[in-house]
């Protein structure tokens, strides 16, 4: 394993919090849908395929479900008790869910309701956490307790597992670049990680030892954006140059930024989960300005993951207050 240590000279740290300006992203419009299955922690929405189809999972309710945002109609597919789904991604083959507690990835057929289970192998925890498609439609995934990054060839049912060398690194949020290279936030330490074409893991050490990156996203030109949950920073890592820039988020050290995603202009959006209600905030890299916070009407509890839909220019996320939220950008 190669460890990429980023020197302090490669770090630009904004010491003061940029305030909202004319160039800052406009505050989005938020719409919430109450989920009638109480206390089930709806989370990790996924857009499509098809029109008016938003997938999500009930982590505490053992289900995969769809929402039609035009009609408000909901459809629930029950999973085995104790599945503990964390994440869902979908394409024309169906909806893949992360069976976090039951140690598998499941493929749900929306028409029949049938489920194909890809069981994980090996010693230790096999707690599938976050998944993302690569360019071929295969799946990279993280195991937080297992301390591994995995890859699943869906057609061949073939796994490759990559052990993270740093102990208790807690591989968490994951995204895949256009070149089908995974990037992972190692929530148990102050590092990001990636897997190269040879299957070697490379770790990127963030300059602050107290940093704990939790979610991340990547631009088409290989800029990795991440949120530091522990100390309240938004950061950007340039893969080519190794430069890291960071900005303290408006909520400060008690902000606990968690869910994040990039919009179609390359602007990061994130949710501060420390304040109650939780706050959705955008950032413009050109002006280095944050938007005015948008408070989540139900409070949010904790917003854990977020995706951007370019067709409607909307962010989607679930909340611990049992809602699914669309934030339409202006």
TrEMBL record:
It holds the Pfam family Vgb_lyase. Residues 1-22 form the signal peptide. Keywords: Lyase, Signal. SUPFAM superfamilies: NHL repeat. PANTHER family: VIRGINIAMYCIN B LYASE (PTHR40274:SF3). GO terms for molecular function: lyase activity. This is Virginiamycin B lyase. InterPro entries: Vgb, WD40/YVTN_repeat-like_dom_sf. The keyword rRNA-binding does not apply.
């Amino acid at each position: 394993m190669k460890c990429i240590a980023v020197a302090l000279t490669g770090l630009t740290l904004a010491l003061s919090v940029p305030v909202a300006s004319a160039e800052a992203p406009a505050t989005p419009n938020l719409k919430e849908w109450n989920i009638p299955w109480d206390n089930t922690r709806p989370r990790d929405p996924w857009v499509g395929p098809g029109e008016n189809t938003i997938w999500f999972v009930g982590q505490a309710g053992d289900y995969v479900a769809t929402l039609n945002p035009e009609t408000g109609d909901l459809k629930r597919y029950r999973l085995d008790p104790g599945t503990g789904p964390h994440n869902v991604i979908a394409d024309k083959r169906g909806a893949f869910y992360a069976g976090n507690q039951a140690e598998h990835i499941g493929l749900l057929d929306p028409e029949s309701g049938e489920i194909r289970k890809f069981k994980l192998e090996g010693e230790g925890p096999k707690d599938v956490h976050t998944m993302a498609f690569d360019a071929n439609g295969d799946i990279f995934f993280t195991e937080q307790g297992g301390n591994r990054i995995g890859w699943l060839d869906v057609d061949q049912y073939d796994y490759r597992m990559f052990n993270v060398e740093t102990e208790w690194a807690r591989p968490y949020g994951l995204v895949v670049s256009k070149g089908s290279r995974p990037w992972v936030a190692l929530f148990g330490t102050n590092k990001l990680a990636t897997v190269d074409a040879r299957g070697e893991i490379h770790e990127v050490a963030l300059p602050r030892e107290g940093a704990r990156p939790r979610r991340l996203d990547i631009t088409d030109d290989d800029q990795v954006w991440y949120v530091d949950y522990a100390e309240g920073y938004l950061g950007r890592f340039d893969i080519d140059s190794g430069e890291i820039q960071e900005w303290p988020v408006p909520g400060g050290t008690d902000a606990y930024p968690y869910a994040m995603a990039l919009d179609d202009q390359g602007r990061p959006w994130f949710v501060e989960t420390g304040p109650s209600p939780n706050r959705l905030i955008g950032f413009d890299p050109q002006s280095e300005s944050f938007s005015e916070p948008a408070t989540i009407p139900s409070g949010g509890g904790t917003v854990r993951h977020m995706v951007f839909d370019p067709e409607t220019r909307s962010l989607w996320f679930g909340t611990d207050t049992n809602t699914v939220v669309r934030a339409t950008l202006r």
